[in-house]
Amino acid sequence: MSFRSSDLQLQQQCQQRHSEIGQLRAQKRSQIMNQKRRKIDFEPRKDGLIPIEEMQNLCYEVINGNTNCLMRLLETLSNDPVPYQIIKSTGTIKTIIKNLKSDNNDIIFYSLSILINYSAFSPENSNEICQQGISLYFEYLINANDERIVMHLLWLMANIASDGVVPSEIIINSGIIQYFPSVLQRFPTLRTRSQIMWLFCSLVRRSENKQIDSNFIQVVIQFAMSCFEYSTNDNDELISDACWTLQYIALIPEQFKYVLTKQVIEKMLYCCRSSEIKIAVPSIRFFGNLLTYDDEIAKQLITQLLPILIYLNDSIDPSILKELYYAISNITACKDLSLLQLILDSKLLYNIPILVIQRDVSKMAREEMEWTLSNFCFGATNQMLQTLLTNCPAVIAALFSICTEQSLPSQLLIITLKSIRNVCRFCDDNKVNINDVAEEFQFETVLEDIIINEPNKRIKELATNLLENYFREPEMML
Question: Domains in the chain, start-ordered, CATH in brackets?
Answer without folding.
Answer: 38-188 (1.25.10.10)
